[in-house]
Amino acid sequence: MDTVKQAPVARVRPVTSTSVTRSLLKRAKADPDTAIRDCTKAVEFNDKDVAAWSCRAFARQLKGDIKGCFSDAARALALNPDEPAALTARAAARLRSGDDQGALADATRALTLDPKQSEAWAQRGVARERLGDMAGAKADYAKSIEIDVFDTIRAQRS
Predict the structure, then answer these.
(1) How many CA atoms lie within 13 Å of 83's alpha carbon, on the beta-carbon side?
(2) Do 53 and 76 meet the contact criterion of CB atoms below 8 Å apart?
(3) Helix 50-63 to helix 66-79 angle, to the nearest 10 degrees?
(4) pLDDT the model gives residue 9
(5) What is the architecture of the domain spanning 19-157?
(6) What is the 3-state secondary structure (H, E, C) of 109-128?
(7) Burial of 55 by CB count in 10 Å (0-12 exposed, 13-18 middle, 19+ buried)?
(8) What are the residue ranges of helices labelled H in 46-83?
(9) Rounded Cα–Cα distance for residues 87 and 93 (Å)
């Protein structure tokens, strides 16, 4: 009896390039409306695009759409539970909704995954400040500024 070997089932695992995500987040800061529109097109094209979900979550929280931010961050984290940008966006939304402990936890986890996320350092700084840890907040703010300054210098050299 002949047996036919079947090819293994390919699993598509969403992979997010850190540099692409950082670029998207910078665009979201500059123009959240355009970022939301562009990310919406990206998720319509590929609903497994973790970077697009994360970016849209971040842009939505900048616009004050906290419910939309939580929804998009949840989608990104369902696709990749270790997505620092989605955790950072959710941290910002948690700060806006008064959940300082949740924001601290999300920002800390994001930094564990990617210590170059300047926005996560800033979010954690705000959470620490609100929770009364002024020394921790000051250190986090300084790290956020340091990363942004070095990113700016690197961009000017390119």
Answers:
(1) 32
(2) yes
(3) 160
(4) 43
(5) Alpha Horseshoe (1.25)
(6) HHHHHCCCCHHHHHHHHHHH
(7) buried
(8) 50-63, 66-79
(9) 10
Residue pair 115/144 in contact (Cβ under 8 Å)? The answer is no
To which residue do tokens 């995500």 refer? 21
The rounded distance, in Å, linking the Cα atoms of 23 and 43 is: 17
Structure tokens at 73: 């961050």
Q: In terms of Cα–Cα distance, which of 45, 46, 56 is closest to 83?
A: 56
Q: What whole-number distance in Å separates Cα of residue 29 and Cα of residue 17?
A: 19
Measured distance CA(147)–CA(15) in Å, rounded = 23
* Residue at token pair 């419910």: 67
Q: Regarding predicted confidence, which is higher, 106 or 22?
A: 106
Report DSSP state, residue 48: T
28 has a pLDDT exceeding 90: no
64 torsion bin: left (phi>0), alpha (psi -120 to 50), beta (else): left
- Tokens for 117, please give them: 């996320």
User: In the numeric block, which tokens belong to residue 135?
Assistant: 């020394």
Local confidence band at 147 (pLDDT 50, 70, 90 cut-offs):
confident
Q: Provide the 8-state DSSP code for 73.
A: H
